[in-house]
Amino acid sequence: MSISKTADRTSRVATRVSTREERPPRYRRLLGWAYLVPVLVYLIAFYAYPLYRNVELSLRDYTVRSFVSGDARFIGLDNFREVFSSPTFASAIIHTAIFTFVSIAFQYVIGLALAVFYNQNFRLSGTLRALFLVPWLLPLIVSASTWSWLLNSESGVVNAALEAFGLPQINWLTSPTWSLIAVIIANIWIGIPFNLVILHSGLQNIPDELFEASALDGADAWRTFRHVTFPLLKPVSAITLLLGFVYTLKVFDIIWIMTRGGPGASSTTLSTWSYQLGFGSLLPHFGPGAAVGNILIIVALVFGLLYIRYENAQAKR
Amino acid sequence: MLNSRLRPLGLALAGLALAGTVAGCSNAKESSDGGSSSGDQQFTFWDPYPQFDGSSDWVKLVSSCGKDAGATIKRTGYDTSDLANKALLAGQQGSSPDIIVIDNPVISTLADAGVLTSADELKLDTSAFAENITAAGVVDGKTYGVPIGANTLALYYNADLLKKAGVDPASVTSWETLNVALAKVKAARGKGITFSGIGTEEGSFQFLPWFWGSGADLKDLASADGVSAVNLWADWLKKGYAPNSVINNTQTTAWQEFATGKFGFVENGTWQMGNAAKLGFKYGVISIPGKDGGAAPAPTGGEFVSAPVQKDAGRYATTTKIIDCLTNPGNLLKTDTTLSYIAPIADVQQQQVTQNPKLAPWVKAVGDAKGRTSDNLGTNYPIISEQMWGAFQNAMSGSASAESAMKTAQEAAASKVK
Known about the structure:
The structure holds two protein chains of two kinds.
Chain A: H1 2-22, H2 26-59, E1 60-61, H3 64-69, E2 73-74, H4 78-85, H5 87-118, H6 125-132, H7 134-137, H8 140-150, H9 157-164, H10 179-204, H11 208-216, H12 221-232, H13 234-249, H14 253-259, H15 270-279, H16 286-316
Antiparallel strand pairs in A: 1-2
Helix pairs in contact in A: 2-16, 4-16, 5-10, 5-13, 8-14, 10-13, 10-14, 13-16, 15-16
Chain B: H1 2-27, E1 41-47, H2 57-68, E2 71-77, H3 80-93, E3 99-103, H4 104-112, H5 119-122, H6 131-134, E4 138-139, E5 142-143, E6 146-147, E7 153-158, H7 159-165, H8 175-187, E8 191-194, H9 201-213, H10 224-239, H11 251-259, E9 263-269, H12 273-276, E10 283-286, E11 303-306, H13 316-327, H14 329-339, H15 346-355, H16 360-368, H17 380-397, H18 402-416
Parallel strand pairs in B: 1-2, 1-3, 8-9
Antiparallel strand pairs in B: 3-11, 4-5, 6-11, 7-9, 7-10
Helix pairs in contact in B: 2-13, 7-8, 9-10, 9-17, 10-17, 14-15, 17-18
């Protein structure tokens, strides 16, 4: 009888011990939530709320009067319809696509070439690499104003050089054909350092043994690059391209300062068009401006999701 | 043991409190300073003259007008292109300034938004002011503010260069004679004319004397007269009388081109008079010619003083006193000399000319001038202006003919105006 009593007591004690280990005490759970709350407040205040306001701005009919009094009429997707049927829409989309893809292609290729070059670590390579950072460090208004000055039709240095070589003068900033090319050139110049820095650090992470091995196998520089360097740089390249893409999609300052969207709409992109609608004239059109802004966000989101899918595919391998 | 358990909890709660305080502070609206019990009330004053700081004549004048009315003025100078948006945002948040000095074409936009009080509500007397200048602030028969001064456009010419080219400035009285003069300047290895044709309100401002001078009306951009004005500019670029850079020039860069001494003419305004004195060559001023002779109506620049709507209507009495002080004929001479404007009152204009005879052609030009938002165009003007600058930009850059550009502009404007 006494044995079974002891057994009961033991099993009861055992049950109590296991309960204490399975469920953490309440205060610990509350503590976890308390740590999360500041982050949640920050995300809601600085990400979710502005996004919500922007979507709301694009779904209502905002005149100056309703902007001030705050009682704008809900008009559903009318602003989006107005944007899609505007003659500037096709130009803006095409120019954004050309601007983004051409800029990134050249920035990446030139950045990669320079990163491989600087990977050789010759004397003064550190100093030269630091100098190459200057375009990225300059305030954008300085870069854009300098490029405007360089590309001026009458008194710019570029046209003076063209004339010295006997080539025809180009109206870089005032011709509908050349204005987009001019802003792309300026943007490439500004974006190269970013690619250079990230790809260079990616290259540093490739172990030297691999290069030695490929040299021992008799591969020349180009084959080493194709079969050793480039494949190992893929994850770094992917993130560089994604960041570059999302950043270039939003580029506004350079285009606005150099050409304001170009004569007519010849260098208008979605971001400059959004600003022009909202603040470019005496009478603001906040609804369509917000609609164009939302379209930009959706495009960036799609590419962001594509990148995440690529990352997941990489992780599974 | 109790302490070590509670410390992380305490830290987390402190972080929560901090976040809550920050969020709360950022949301707090500024309460209007209506009923402060101390002697002088504080009145906010916004103007678009950031180049003037506390030691300038303008700010001293504003402060003294405030003191005379029993108020301390808190004055802020903003960039003029920013001020309209700031005024709208302030109206939305209920934190409008007591007095705002703002560019005249924006007055109708702000009045339409319900942000401004009318002169009747303020019991402000606007009868002394020149009608063509005040018209820019009239919406549906009500006046929303008084002009503080006006400026307008005319043609500055390089007297030395014109003499060398054999051009008599007095002969430039119509478009034809102007083109003849430009041809002569080009033949003498000079450059003809420069102006600002940029795709903003500045470009429209510079285009209007030619548009109105052809006899066209802003309500019909695609009329034959309107198209002829665009063709005038486009032909100047084709013939080389005007440089290609006009497509991106602001009025400031156009002036800088003229100041190099290579250009015969520049279309610019009263505000350059101070810089004109520093030119390295002799210059003169003539009115912009109309198409068939006579002076073309040029648009009026210059700001209006206006009073935004306040929650506490008791403040209007002091506001009216301050506005009266700034714009009464006695003080207007001082204000407009400081700002380089032509006075909006005929008597004061005469005083200005007596003081400085160089102002004579400008007083005449202002007398011929016209407000951009007058003819009750009001908030339709920005819509028409935006289409107009798109049209002449396309025509000048060669992407469309003048007819098709103006036709597209007129269709777009007509579909959007009220």
